Amino acid sequence: MKSPALQARDVEQQQQLRTLTIIFKNFQECVDQKVYQAEMDELPAAFADGSKNGGDKHGANSLRITEKVSGQHVEIQAKYIGTTIVVRQVGRYLTFAVRMPEETAVAKCKERLPVEDLYYQACVFDLLTTGDVNFTLAAYYALEDVKMLHSDKDKLHLTGLSKPKIHGYHLQQNLATSVSFKSKI
């Protein structure tokens, strides 16, 4: 049987981000579909097809990759959707951060959560900080579960809380961009 320290190391290794794939879908007359793939110890400064911008269309430069530090730091700017993605290799870790317009997150959360309560605020915060649209469903189902389980229907919507301030990079995952990542399992 493994020691607790070895078990903890195994869990940590399983949770490490090992592969990151970002797909920028074909967008009107602006950019061609582009795929960016990064893996541990392989942080390319170009899309999978070798290009560094959005293709041959008129707005191709509204999507571009810039290598900040060779093999360690890449920045992808998708100006046509107001999004910046930073990908880094830090030691044994592959990380990413994304900045998106807050109004996109607000609109996504309002689709499922029309009342600006705790669930709505958590949805916006989670979507801005992770970019994972599944958080809109998580917040929605959390509210639905409370509706089913809580006897006092007047206390379902916790409002009047200060809205969280979000700083740094955020992620946009919509019709124009999709992101996937895998951990070693």
Automatic annotation (TrEMBL):
GO MF assignments: coreceptor activity
One Gene Ontology cellular component term attached to this UniProt record is: plasma membrane
Kindly give the InterPro entries that the UniProt entry links to this protein: RGM, RGM_C
Q: Which residues form the Repulsive guidance molecule C-terminal domain?
A: 18-105
A Gene Ontology biological process in which this protein takes part is: BMP signaling pathway
PANTHER family assigned: REPULSIVE GUIDANCE MOLECULE A, RGM DOMAIN FAMILY MEMBER DRAG-1
Name used for this protein in its record: Repulsive guidance molecule A
